[in-house]
Amino acid sequence: MSERLEGEALRAWLVAFGAEVDRAADGLCVRITVDRARSLLRALREEPALSMTRLVDLTAIDRGVGEARFELVYRLARSADGERVRVVVPLAEAEPPPESVVSLWPAADWLEREIFDLFGLSFRSHPGLRRLLLPQSFGGAPLRKDPGQRDATAPDSAKVAAGGGPS
Description:
Elements: H1 7-16, E1 20-24, E2 27-31, H2 34-46, E3 54-62, E4 70-77, E5 84-91, H3 108-119, H4 157-161
Parallel strand pairs: 2-5
Antiparallel strand pairs: 1-2, 3-4, 4-5
């Protein structure tokens, strides 16, 4: 492809990749399965007609319920004109972890570590996956919605609100 993909041509290209595509206020929103995500992300970055060379953000969402309880959200941008694409990857707890994108965007290193630290989600082939914000001794993932995955030493929010807390 030599021309930039836009509009219906881009939508058709993404659908052919196996993605669901919607238009959002901040650009396209693309949903794709975890087994196809790495291939799509690589193509979005390396295809000259797309050139999504900037990883603006990578985060996770814990929906708390449902088969695909977690979502990874990759926010990409094209440097030339600021065009944005949001790639959403639903994850079930039983699924194998997604492939790291550090080799595509080095900035993903700390973003993937943050997700690992706060949500307990790991990434295959990450060059150094370890806690980033919390101490190594912390025994949970504080942004997960299941209380069993949070650290048992964390203060109970009801106690803290009442002025109490761990002693």
